[in-house]
Sequence to fold (356 residues):
Amino acid sequence: MAVPFSAFALLMHEEEVLGKAYDARLMRRLLGYLRPYWRQVLIALAAIVSSSVLQLAQPYLMKLAIDDYIAVDDLQGLKLLGVAYVGVLVAGFALEYIQTWTLQMTGQKIMFDMRMQIYGHLQRLDVQFYDRNPVGRLMTRVTTDVDVLNELFTAGVVSVFGDVFLLVGIMAALTLMDWRLALVAFTVLPLIVLVTQWFRRNVRESYRSVRTWIARINAFLHEHITGMSTVQLFRRERRSFEAFDGTNRGHRDANVDSIYYYAVFYPAIEVIGALSTAMIIWVGGRWVLEGTLTLGSFLAFLLYSQRFYRPISDLSEKFNILQAAMASSERVFTLLDAEVKIESGRGMRDAGRESR
Fold:
């Protein structure tokens, strides 16, 4: 449904409006851009899942090396296991390459499609539209917002399956090896949930503030640089400079707030992870000495627990990518839904008739 000019101008101007962190309607519309490249998406998804499986295999291979070969002095078996471990690493490298190349290439193609669609739509909007909307904000739609959506396609939509698969796989591996020690490792999960919720809530507001100030800077610079001759004619250089100083300071302060939340979140996750590791060493080490837990299982537990927190951090970062994409997609689709009042090619036909 087309958006009237007055409503569109209000939406474009009010960058401060905070949309939902996830909007199913917007996501369905975004996923439509993936449809022409579904083969590439399937290849990337297969590479991501396969890479996660290989990551899960590495600690288990270490367990086998200690419990099944080193413990019984089986040098031949240990040699074969070492070759298998190297093979897992090489295969993981190849899968990471396939995943990165496929997603990045797909993202570039989608960006090309979106920019062509937006520019073609802009050509069909009449002068009244441009009178009501700053050119700086329109340029932001074609450049910055499309770049944000590219990050969703290359590092968000598909990659999140790998993080979820790895997280669930690690929890399953820990539980299958020793459910008692798994419960010890999982005692810190409530702390992770609390810290993650705090981070998501605050960084969402902070990110939206940064985006607001970026849009203001873009609009200010475009309007004042293109109108610099008028500013100089009326000797308003100082007033213009002071106005930009205020806008620039707002952008800086918003970024400082964002940096604070990141500076707290990631070290907090590391500390919680270290606390979990210490509990595993304390409880699991005692069970090894008592003979109720093998040394290989103990080492595998430590390796799995250390890998457990990386996908949690990655998922939190992907939440930021998601909310950024929701905000950018809402602005892009609002632009694409703006009412068209010039028929395609009509201006060229009219100009041709006048030249005769």
